[in-house]
Design goal:
The protein has 5 helices and 25 strands. By secondary structure, the protein is mainly β.
């Protein structure tokens, strides 16, 4: 049995082979879609190997890649695999458990303003910068404490930063904190220029623990609206858009766009509808694909297709329910698709390139524990087929992006790979 401190990250490292629960879907096609009639054909090219925990990828206009490494470094990589020294000026990053330096995206007007946005976990004032902390520090030493004590702990701050990338791409200039507060996973720009940013469940700030509680959690919905995993919506200057859904309610943070997620490590705008789609880690099972709509509730930590981690339980208990134990509930949005057992999804992209006409409109998702690339074939918002690619590599897939050239780029373990036609 693994130590309790590792339980919260188990889904990122292992497939839950002991999981026996098989929840019934709310509708056909919500899980276990059949494989497509024709298997995908492509070649895999290696751009570069030996990166250090790569997390996110953006495409620079000159053809280089801008990447983040979760331990606090940002670099560029040339198309022929030359890796730069760490970019200077990146703020101090605290690396603990699943926290660190995460996403990086370019401003829509990057070619004229060279602005970038990035998410990271900032250390408390006076703490050793760029330190890597034991997992226990963020998990076991926190969720075992009473709520009042937890809220006095200054472990660090989830942060969105903005900066200007120097013309030679060696330095971040004019670095500023755009937003602080419980979101530091993915950034997605909408067509109107506003930013969606996803965050993990802030268990340390309310009466819950790492994978939920074993009772109904509906008595105070504003607690969940503020502290469960959220998607926020802000402008590129960090301000509140006037049409955000909770501006009329003083007890809900005005930036909150949707809530009830556990850990959304991927997001993308649907190329036809313009809606935000995100993936969400379940606990033990119940990983999800969701369409995010304003003001909606996505269930966590009260409703889930997963269960609490077996390794957390005493007395040999298994399949311990999350929240009220239900998989569906009035007022809670159903996921478009879910997986049991967990695949640990991270990174997602709709295919909109020209190199693979047969992939047009398909949704690609990285699987870390599953060690494969998911291809979902869609009919509108319905998943009609699921194909698992790159299983033979036996590597954790973290990031997935479609490049300007139409190739699919992804982080597989410590490598940046490119998928091109055979």
């Amino acid at each position: 049995m693994p130590p309790l401190s590792l339980v919260a990250v188990l889904s990122s490292f292992t497939v839950e082979a002991q999981q026996t629960r098989e929840p019934a879907p709310a509708f056909r096609s919500q899980t276990e879609a059949p494989p497509p009639a024709e298997r995908s054909r492509f070649s895999v090219e290696t751009v570069v190997e030996r990166l250090a925990s790569p997390w996110a990828l953006a495409f620079l206009p000159n053809g280089d890649f801008l990447i983040t490494e979760s331990r606090g470094t940002m670099r560029t990589v040339s198309p022929d695999g030359i890796v730069s020294a760490p970019i200077e000026g990146v703020p101090a990053v605290k690396v603990v458990a699943a926290q660190g330096l995460h996403d990086v995206v370019l401003d829509p007007d990057f070619e004229s303003n060279r602005l970038i946005y990035f998410t990271y976990f900032a250390p408390p004032e006076g703490e050793e910068p760029r330190a890597v902390w034991p997992v226990d520090h963020f998990y076991t030493e926190v969720w075992t404490k009473p709520l009042a004590e937890r809220r006095l702990m200054d472990l660090g701050t989830e942060t969105i930063g903005r900066a200007r990338l120097s013309s030679n791409a060696r330095t971040l200039e004019d670095v500023e904190v755009l937003y602080e507060g419980r979101v530091e996973r993915r950034i997605v720009f909408a067509a109107d220029g506003t930013m969606y940013v996803t965050g993990a469940d802030a268990f340390r700030f309310y009466e819950t623990d790492l994978d939920g509680v074993e009772h109904d959690f509906t008595d105070n919905p504003d607690v969940r609206r503020n502290f469960s995993g959220r998607v926020i919506r802000i402008t590129s200057d960090g301000k509140l858009p006037a049409d955000n859904p909770w501006l009329h309610r003083a007890t809900v943070a005005g930036e909150t766009f949707a809530h009830g997620f556990k850990d959304s490590e991927g997001g993308a705008i649907h190329p036809e509808t313009g809606e935000l789609w995100v993936i969400d880690h379940g606990p033990q099972g119940g990983d999800e694909v969701n369409i995010v709509r304003p003001g909606r509730d996505y269930g966590w930590p009260n409703v889930s297709y997963g269960v609490q981690y077996d390794a957390r339980q005493t007395g040999g208990r298994t399949n311990v329910p999350v929240g009220n134990g239900r998989t569906s509930m009035p007022g809670v949005e159903e996921p478009v698709y879910f997986w049991v057992p967990s695949i640990a999804p991270s990174g997602m992209a709709f295919y909109t390139g020209d190199l693979f006409p047969e992939w047009q409109g398909n949704l690609f998702i990285g699987a870390m524990a599953g060690q494969h690339l998911v291809r979902l074939v869609l009919d509108g918002s319905i998943v009609v087929a699921e194909e698992r690619l790159l299983e033979e590599l036996e590597r954790r897939i973290r990031e997935v992006k479609v490049g300007p050239d139409g190739a699919v780029y992804l982080f597989a373990g410590d490598s940046l790979l490119r998928l091109v036609p055979e």
